[in-house]
From TrEMBL:
Protein name as annotated: Ribulose-phosphate 3-epimerase
HAMAP family in alphabetical order: RPE
Catalytic activity entry: D-ribulose 5-phosphate = D-xylulose 5-phosphate
Secretion signal span: none
Family: Belongs to the ribulose-phosphate 3-epimerase family.
Species annotation: Sphingomonas sediminicola
Active site: D32 (proton acceptor), D172 (proton donor)
Metabolic or biological pathway, per its Swiss-Prot or TrEMBL entry: Carbohydrate degradation
InterPro entries: Aldolase_TIM, Ribul_P_3_epim, Ribul_P_3_epim-like, RibuloseP-bd_barrel
GO molecular function, one term: D-ribulose-phosphate 3-epimerase activity
Amino acid sequence: MISPSILSADFAKLGEEVRSIDEAGADWIHVDVMDGHFVPNITIGPGVVKALRPHSAKPFDVHLMISPIDNFLDAFAEAGADIITVHPEAGPHLHRTIQRIKVLGKKAGVSLNPATPAKALDYVLEEIDLVLVMSVNPGFGGQKFISSQLRKIEAIAKRIAKENLTVQVEVDGGIDPVTARQAVDAGATALVAGTAAFKGGPDNYASNIRALRGEG
Ligand code: DX5
Ligand code: ZN
C-alpha cells in the first residue's frame, strides 16, 4: 500500500491535491495531524479532513500526533477518517483509546516513535489493524530515514506472522525508492511518502508512486 502524506502537498489547494494523488495511484491518503504540543509543528484539524472527504473515495489514513488524544477521536471519525492511528505516549490509556476507535467503527493503528520499542505493542497488537513505525522523529516532512527502524519493522512483522494476526505494518518518514525497498524487505506492507510522492508537482505524481513501488 502506498499512502502519500498530504503534508507535502500544496496546502493552498489541498482538495485538488488529494484528487490528483488519488488518480495517480495512491492506495490510501495519509493525513498528518499535529498539535504543536505532542510534536513541534501544527498542521490541520478535523474540519480540513471533513472538507477533503468528498475529494477522494480512498481510505483516509489519519495519523494523530496530538495529546491528550481521547477528546479528538470522535471528531476525526465523524470527519471521515478510516484508519485512526495514535501514539502510546499521547494518552494515559492506550487500550481504552483503541477500543474507542473501534467503537466508532474505524480501523485502529498504533504508531511507534524511533525510540519507542516494539514492546509497546504488548497487550494491544491483537486489538489493532495497523502498526505505524516512525522512521523519523514525527513533526516534519523531508527528514532522513533512520535505518535502525528496519530491525523494529522486522521484529514486528515476524511477531504478527507468528501470532497469525492480520495487521498492516506501515512505515512513515524518509521513504524514497531505496528505503521503500528496504522497508518492504524488512516486512512493511504499507509505506507513507510525503516528499517522494509529491515532488515535482501533479504531472509527476503517477511516476513518483510507480518509483516507490519499484516499477522504475
Ligand atoms: C512526519 C509525518 C510523516 C511525513 C513524511 O511527522 O508523520 O507522515 O509527512 O514525510 P516524508 O515522506 O517527506 O519523510
Ligand atoms: Zn505520518
